[in-house]
Each structure stands twice: as structure tokens, then as C-alpha cells.
Design a protein that fits this description.
With about 150 residues, the chain is an alpha+beta fold. The chain is built from three helices and seven strands. The chain folds into two domains: about 35 residues; about 110 residues, Sandwich (Immunoglobulin-like), CATH 2.60.40.10. Strands 4-3-6-7 form a four-stranded antiparallel sheet. Strands 1-2-5 form a three-stranded antiparallel sheet, with no helix packed on it. A hairpin with a 3-residue loop joins strand 1 and strand 2. It is elongated, with a radius of gyration of 25 Å. InterPro entries: FixH.
Length: about 150
């Protein structure tokens, strides 16, 4: 049986449409391609961006800024040594870009100038560390991206 050029053209178009639809359905249903927004209230956070810039500028003026390093126990965050650790207030945000359910917010209450985030709290991969803190009347903002 011989197939005419019209039939070949229709079969080719149907095959191409099926190929494209397969990829569209795969992208919609596959969990690996599911990404969330960075923050839920994007526009509300955008309005406070200038305040965040001012806090970041204050942090860059410090003689010693926050240090982040990994140890066997977990992630160690060291605050400046010349600050009284009992007067440091704020929040630590651990943001996981690939999975919103792993995001963590920890209020700062320090017994020393170091804060330990336990190893069991962090899975391997990329994390954004955001520390919004204040000492006395000055407010500071620290951000670092790490691969844990």
C-alpha cells in the first residue's frame, strides 16, 4: 500500500503535535519542575527594599561582620565579638530555593556570640542565609548563599 504525500503530511503534523503535548504535560505534572516564588508577598516585600539596603549599608560599616562556616555539628554563625550577645535581637531565615517546605525561620537568642544550626536541620544543596538583626538602635542585614 502506497501512502500519498497528503497522508504523510497529516501523519507528520499529528506526530509533531503529540511530541510537543508530551513535553507540555511532562513539564506541568513532574515535581522536579515545580518551583515556588521566592516570597509569597513579593510586592509588599519590594516596598521595604530601601530599608533593607540601609541595613546592609550599616552591616558593611562594621569592623567585623557576621561569619558563616560549616563544622561537624552543623552550620556555625559567628556574630561580631565586640557586641554584647545578649543585646542582639532578630531573625535567621534559612531559605531553600528548590523546596519551600524546608524553609526555616529561627529567632535569635544567643548565649554566646555564636549560633549553631544543627546538621540534621539542613539537607545538602543550596541555601540562602538571611539574618535580619539589630543591636541597640542600629539595624543590620546579612545575606549569604551557600552550598551545604
Amino acid at each position: 500500500m502506497k501512502i500519498s504525500w497528503g497522508t504523510s503530511l497529516v501523519l507528520t503534523i499529528i506526530g509533531f503535535i503529540s511530541f510537543i503535548m508530551f513535553f507540555v504535560v511532562t513539564m506541568i505534572t513532574d515535581e522536579a519542575y515545580s518551583h515556588d516564588l521566592v516570597v509569597e508577598e513579593y510586592y509588599k516585600n519590594e516596598l521595604s527594599f530601601q530599608e533593607q539596603l540601609d541595613k546592609t549599608q550599616n552591616a558593611t560599616k562594621l569592623p567585623e561582620n557576621i561569619q558563616v562556616h560549616r563544622s561537624r555539628q552543623g552550620l556555625v554563625i559567628t556574630f561580631p565579638k565586640d557586641f554584647d550577645h545578649t543585646m542582639i535581637k532578630g531573625n535567621l531565615f534559612l531559605y531553600r530555593p528548590s523546596n519551600k517546605q524546608l524553609d526555616v525561620e529561627i529567632p535569635l537568642s544567643l548565649s554566646t556570640n555564636q549560633l549553631l544550626v544543627p546538621d540534621k536541620s539542613l539537607l545538602g544543596g543550596r541555601w540562602n542565609i538571611i539574618i535580619d538583626w539589630e543591636y541597640g538602635t542600629e539595624k543590620y542585614y546579612f545575606r549569604e548563599d551557600i552550598n551545604y
